[in-house]
Structures are given as structure tokens and as C-alpha cells.
């Protein structure tokens, strides 16, 4: 066998190996993603005729080659659950306006939900957790285009830090956003620096021995908001979705009007806003959300 022939056989063998590995990776990804938590809203919620749905976003990523590759190959649930492609975000905002869904602020939600009157329409509130650079660089221009109000919840002690592969916005960047958005933006606190999990996977603020620290952390977060924004905020947003009984009871004693959770649901006049449900927006949840936004009977 000639040297050239051996090279071609080796090249063919390597191609077969890479092809096999590629197919195996894709199958594993499909299996893992197919068995992860579904963020689709319930059939009951899809059939509700009116109410307020609070959208929860984390990162809005530009449609770059790297992002597209990660979307195809990454089995990391954090990537698929908490990232939204910018093209998808633009399409979602366009969808709301094309179907005449009114986007309201958190303050307007409070007013409607406490009016004790039946809601006649479907409304949406836009919220963003953590506030990394993509919220400002990518999502903000889209919301400004439609003049949509939105709420951002800040980890007040972690601004400018790297988290989950992205960099959180700095205070100068946040204040620049505030100047651009004006009254369209509302601020909430997302703890000062207790947005992380223990080794066992428990949110640090839900560890009983950390309760005193959490109370101090909450006070610090509000002090930072007073210093940076000019006022404390009536909005607290839970990292990881919820707190234990002790944490929840403490927050309910604070002058807070809204405590945002990740308990999926739709806000109505019967909703306790101290445990406000939200819906995580991703490719998994969006199809079910559109069934509520534009039901067949009114489409």
C-alpha cells in the first residue's frame, strides 16, 4: 500500500470517528434537553381569559456564530433556560405589539392588581434579572423602539462582576441606561451579594444560619439603591425563585409592594403581590405563552 493511500485511509478513518462523535453528542444533547424542566405555562393558565403575565429575562445574546454554535451544541441548561437570542427577543416584542398586547410597568401592574376589579384584557410586564451588559446593549434598544416600560433587578454588590459567562453591567452603565430610558425603567433589588448557591445547591439566603446576614444584606442593597438611584425600591426579586418561610416573612414586613418569584402563573386581582409569579422566557416556554397571548378564539 502506497504512502498516499495510507494517508487517505487515515483521513477517512478520522472523519468517520468525528462524525460518530458528532452524532453521539447531538443525541446526548437532545436527551438532556428533552429531560430538563419544562418552562411551558400550564393549560389552565393558557386558558385564562385575562390577567397580567410577568416575563422574566436574564440574558439577551446577539445572533453571532459563537452563540448559534452554543445553541446547537451546549447541553448546559443554564444556557438554554436563561438565554434568549436577540433575534428571538425582537420577534417576541414585535409579536406583543402586532397583537396589541399592552406592555405595562410594575407600578401599573400594582394599580391594576389592587383595584379589586376584574381585568378585561391581557397585559405583560417585562422584567430582567441580574442586569448584565446584554440587557443594556441588546434588549434596551428594542424596548426603546416600542417605548416599552421594564423592570431591572440589580445585584447591588456585584455590578461589573463576571457571572455565568457574562459580565454584569457597571453602575455607570446602569445610570446611563436610566438616563436613556427615563420613566420607562423601574429598579428592584436582587440582594446585595447573596446571589449564589451553597455546595449542596441551596440558595445561600435560605440557609437558616445565614438569616441575620440576609437581613443585613437586604438593608445594604436598599442603601446602595438610595445612594445610586436616589431612592429605595419597593421591589425585591428572589434569586433562584423563592425564599423559605423565615426569609419570606421578613420581606413581607418590609415596605415592599412587590416580591417577584419564579412561581409560574398569571397575576390577577386575587394575586398576593408579595409572592408575584413570573414566567421565564425561552424557546421552551414561548409557544405556550403565545397560546395565552393570542388564543384561537380571538386570533
From TrEMBL:
Keyword Signal attributed: yes
Family annotation (PROSITE patterns): NODB (PS51677)
Residues covered by the NodB homology domain: 122-299
Keywords (A to Z) from UniProt: Signal
Location(s), subcellular: Secreted
Entry annotated with the keyword Zinc: no
InterPro entries the record matches: Glyco_hydro/deAcase_b/a-brl, NODB_dom, Polysacch_Deacetylase
Signal peptide limits: none
Stated name of the protein: Intercellular adhesion protein
Amino acid at each position: 500500500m502506497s504512502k498516499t493511500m495510507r494517508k487517505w485511509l487515515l483521513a477517512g478513518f478520522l472523519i468517520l470517528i468525528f462524525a460518530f462523535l458528532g452524532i453521539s453528542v447531538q443525541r446526548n444533547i437532545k436527551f438532556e434537553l428533552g429531560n430538563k424542566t419544562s418552562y411551558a405555562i400550564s393549560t389552565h393558565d393558557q386558558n385564562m381569559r385575562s390577567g397580567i403575565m410577568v416575563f422574566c429575562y436574564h440574558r439577551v445574546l446577539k445572533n453571532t456564530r459563537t452563540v448559534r454554535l452554543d445553541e446547537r451544541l451546549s447541553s448546559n441548561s443554564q444556557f438554554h433556560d436563561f438565554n434568549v437570542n436577540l433575534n428571538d427577543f425582537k420577534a417576541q416584542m414585535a409579536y406583543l405589539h402586532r397583537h396589541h398586547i399592552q406592555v405595562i410597568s410594575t407600578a401599573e401592574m400594582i394599580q391594576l392588581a389592587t383595584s379589586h376589579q376584574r381585568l378585561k384584557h391581557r397585559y405583560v410586564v417585562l422584567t430582567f434579572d441580574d442586569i448584565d451588559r446584554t440587557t443594556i446593549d441588546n434588549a434596551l434598544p428594542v424596548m426603546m423602539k416600542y417605548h416599552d416600560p421594564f423592570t431591572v433587578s440589580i445585584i447591588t454588590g456585584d455590578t461589573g462582576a463576571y457571572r455565568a459567562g457574562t459580565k454584569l453591567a457597571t453602575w455607570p452603565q446602569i445610570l446611563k441606561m436610566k438616563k436613556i430610558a427615563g420613566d420607562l425603567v423601574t429598579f428592584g433589588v436582587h440582594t446585595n451579594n447573596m446571589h449564589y448557591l451553597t455546595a449542596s445547591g441551596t440558595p445561600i439566603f435560605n440557609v437558616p444560619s445565614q438569616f441575620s446576614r440576609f437581613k443585613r444584606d437586604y438593608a445594604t442593597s436598599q442603601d446602595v439603591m438610595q445612594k445610586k438611584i436616589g431612592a429605595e425600591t419597593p421591589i425585591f426579586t428572589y434569586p433562584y425563585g423563592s425564599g423559605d418561610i423565615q426569609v419570606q416573612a421578613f420581606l413581607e414586613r418590609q415596605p415592599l409592594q412587590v416580591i417577584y418569584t419564579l412561581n409560574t402563573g398569571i397575576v390577577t386581582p386575587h394575586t398576593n403581590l408579595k409572592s408575584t409569579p413570573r414566567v421565564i422566557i425561552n424557546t421552551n416556554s414561548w409557544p405556550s405563552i403565545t397560546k395565552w397571548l393570542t388564543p384561537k378564539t380571538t386570533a
